[in-house]
Design a protein that fits this description.
mainly alpha, 6 helices, membrane, transmembrane, transmembrane helix
């Protein structure tokens, strides 16, 4: 639940104190870009690669939509 509200904080904690992102990503550039632009998507990708050993497509699509603000945003007049 903490990852939904503070995804960047959770990414930093997981990166430095666990091996999740080192196992999911081969380098440093993609996690850094994900941290900046798509934090929920990066967090979901790291979690799904660690727990499920494959990317869960539905969860990944939902995370991208949340990151882009398409889901959960109110339309302004």
């Amino acid at each position: 639940m903490l990852g939904f509200f503070f995804p960047r904080l959770v990414i930093v904690l997981l990166y430095f104190f666990t091996g999740w992102f080192r196992a999911a990503f081969d380098g440093f550039i993609l996690p850094l870009l994900g941290f900046i632009f798509l934090p929920l998507t990066t967090l979901w990708y790291g979690i799904s690669e660690t727990y499920f050993e494959s990317v869960q497509t539905v969860g990944l699509i939902i995370a991208v939509l949340l990151d882009l603000g398409i889901v959960g945003s109110k339309m302004r007049k």
